[in-house]
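1st attempt posting a full record on here, be nice pls
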Amino acid sequence: MRSSRRHPLLVPALLCALAVLAARPADGTDAGSDAALGPEVARLYEDAAKATQRYEEGRREAEAQRSKALAYEKRLDEQRQKIDAMHADLGRIARAQYRGGGGLPLTARMFLADDPDELMRGQRAFTRADLAVNKAIGKSLRAEARLAADEAKAQAAWRALEKRNADLATLKTGIEGKLEAARARLEGRADASVAAGSCPGAVRLDQQDLPVGRPWVAPVEAYELSASFGSGGSRWANRHTGQDFAVPVGTPVGSVGTGRVVQVSCGGAFGIQVVVQHAGGYYTQYAHLASVAVDQGDRVRPGQWIGQSGSTGNSTGPHLHFEVRVTPEMGSALDPVPWLSQRGVPL
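the predicted structure (as tokens):
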């Protein structure tokens, strides 16, 4: 599956922004009206995609924080083991001191010693070793305190991210619920129009940022390829004449290149469909749509939304049927996958 463009990392304002997205109606229009339904689905589709992207970014950030906390915990365990070893060393030094006469005052031991100078040198060496061990223990304890503080911060950050992700998941679910309901209404309206033989008029969509410097693009941004050109099946009289893109109802469909709309129609096997003429004698068809966003005669650019996917006509489920032809009519189709690949659009 190909993904849509990336978004920046989560910031605290995202929750407020997503709350607005989840609550907002179709801009100033009745969300249940026919005129508002297509744009409402398109907006909710983008809102759901953004919510999903931001939720995934937050989940990855939370996992990174969790890994950091676990790393701090591992370093703390290592530090504690070093301190325990130092304590054991100090205990051995103390016991050695006691066995060597450490229970007597230093003055008494000097009187009794065969070599008082050697005794003093040994005492100084012991004192230096004792100080070194105490210094090392103090340094280790301070390091442990710093690590513990860092671990507490990492754990707190992780818990905060987990809570934020839970809130994001709730908002994401709310947006997706609204989207599913709007898609069902859009599909029902499209089916009713096709059954009545009355094509719905163009419903203009708020356009995305069109790709710059790309003369050809895929007809949808995120998809899975399903039935391919030339494949057989009971749904077709002969062979499949295009490439199917499995996408949900209401997915914005864009023109693959610059051209002119030469046909907008509904009814028959293809349901609601749009045909675009391109330079070089080629035509592209976009079928089984739920709505159209262009009229016959309109000029379109690469990536410009011309409709929304659906399941009208001879269709067993939501998808876009895409064809490349050498005439505007069926029966002149080419395999669209290599055709697009030759134009820099691998599927």
